[in-house]
Every structure is written in C-alpha cells, then in structure tokens.
Inverse folding.
C-alpha cells in the first residue's frame, strides 16, 4: 500500500514500478494524478475529504486492464475533471458523494474517458466499460454523486449506474457509437442521465435495462443499429421512470417490457 497524507496535490508516476499497489489517499489531496499504473492497482480515499482533478493513467498492456476507485470520503469536484487513460474497465465507487454545484452555481465534475487506439493488439488502450456505484446513505443529500458530461466515449461499450445508497446524476454521453448496453438500478437513490448518442448514435445498442425503486429520469437515447435493439426492460417498482425517448433509425426495437 502507498499512503499519502498531505493536504496538497498528489502526483505519483509509477513508470519504473513492477508492483500493483493500493493507493490510499488519506490526507485530503487537492488533486490526484497517478500515472503509468499496472493492471491490478486500486485507489481509495480515506480520513479526509478530497478535491480537484482526478487523473489516472495505466501503461500500455496487451490484455484488458481494470481499475477500481473507492472514494470513501467526499470529493469536491466542482468545475474539475476525472480522467481515465489506457484502462478498459473502470469501476467508480463513492460512499460520501462527489459534490458539484450544478448549473446554478458552478459545474459538476466532467468525466473524460479514453477512445484512442494506440497499437494493434493492445486491448486496454481505451475505456470500454464504466460502472458507477453510489453506496452512500439515501437520506443524506451530501452523499449524492454529481457528474457532468462524459467525453471521449466513442469506444465505450457498457454503461452501468447503481444508486444503491444515494442518488447518481450523470450528464450527456454524446459519443455512443460502440455502446451495447445501458443498465440502471435505483435501489436507494434517484438516477438522472442526460442524452446519449446526441453526436454519434450507437450502432451496436442491444439492451436497455432500468430497475427503479426510486425515480429514474433519462434523456433521448439515439441508436443506429441495423441489427435492431433486442430488449428494453423498464421495471418501475416504487419509483417512476421518465423521459426515455429511444430512437433506432437504422433498424427495429424488438421487445419492450414494462412492469410496475
């Protein structure tokens, strides 16, 4: 484990390392930059709230790399950016929220993914899976995850949002041409998602699954899949599902299942 305790910018380059440590950001860092990590590394915050940009980059690898980021303390991301590079599968967990001021006061934290293909045979050079889990407390508004728009997402294949503890807000995903599945679960908090595919519609979208114990609000989802969208499952348990407008200009929408 590598532990940092300074309440200042954290910047670590692991270019010469052969290990896959857990990074424990314990001092209330004002930004977090971790470069040239190897597959198997993990990141968590503890003890003090953090703020500022979060920038995590893996080195090139021949197999799909995965990364888990556990924000156990609140992160103030107002006007800042969270960036992931050279890692195929990203899981972001938060317990005490990712704070943003929203359009009225400032800007929620931007998500910048990686859609650059570097070398033939390099599988983990782009973000292909993004999972966001809010494990906070539903009655505590400060535990909400507030994220703005997602960029560099043209190779993203799966997007999963789990508000198991408190709310999740995510802005637009304009470049969605590779997206195959969208999964949303609002067991413990509301979920709000902006438009998907507004710039580049998905040519691969196969399934949308929404399970709503709390309210879920979506925007337009644009597909251009000649093979058709196989399934749309909307299960409103105790929450409402609103706003979804799915289009597939190139093909069919084969099955829509509604329950509630």
């Amino acid at each position: 484990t590598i532990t940092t305790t300074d309440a200042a910018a954290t910047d670590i380059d692991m270019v010469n390392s052969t290990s896959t440590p857990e990074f424990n950001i314990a001092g209330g860092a004002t930004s977090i930059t971790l470069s040239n990590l190897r597959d198997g590394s993990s990141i968590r915050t503890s003890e003090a709230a953090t703020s500022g940009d979060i920038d995590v980059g893996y080195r090139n690898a021949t197999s799909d790399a995965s990364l888990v980021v556990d924000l156990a303390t609140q992160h103030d991301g107002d006007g800042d950016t969270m960036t992931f590079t050279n890692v195929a599968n990203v899981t972001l967990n938060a317990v005490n929220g990712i704070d943003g001021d929203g359009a009225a006061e400032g800007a929620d934290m931007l998500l910048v993914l990686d859609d650059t293909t570097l070398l033939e045979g390099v599988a983990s050079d782009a973000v292909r899976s993004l999972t966001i889990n809010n494990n906070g407390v539903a009655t505590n508004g400060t535990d909400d995850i507030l994220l703005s728009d997602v960029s560099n997402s043209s190779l993203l294949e799966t997007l999963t949002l789990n508000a198991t503890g408190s709310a999740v807000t995510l802005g637009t995903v304009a470049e969605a041409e590779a997206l195959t599945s969208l999964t949303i679960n609002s067991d413990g908090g509301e979920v709000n998602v902006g438009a998907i595919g507004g710039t580049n519609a998905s040519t691969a979208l196969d399934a949308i699954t929404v399970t709503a114990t709390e309210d879920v609000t979506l925007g337009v989802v644009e597909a251009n899949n000649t093979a058709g969208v196989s399934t749309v499952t909307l299960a409103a348990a105790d929450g409402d599902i609103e706003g979804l407008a799915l289009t597939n200009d190139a093909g069919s929408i084969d099955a829509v299942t509604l329950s509630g």
About this structure: The radius of gyration is 18 Å. The longest strand covers residues 229-236. Residues 71 and 94 are 5 Å apart (CA to CA). The mean pLDDT is 92.
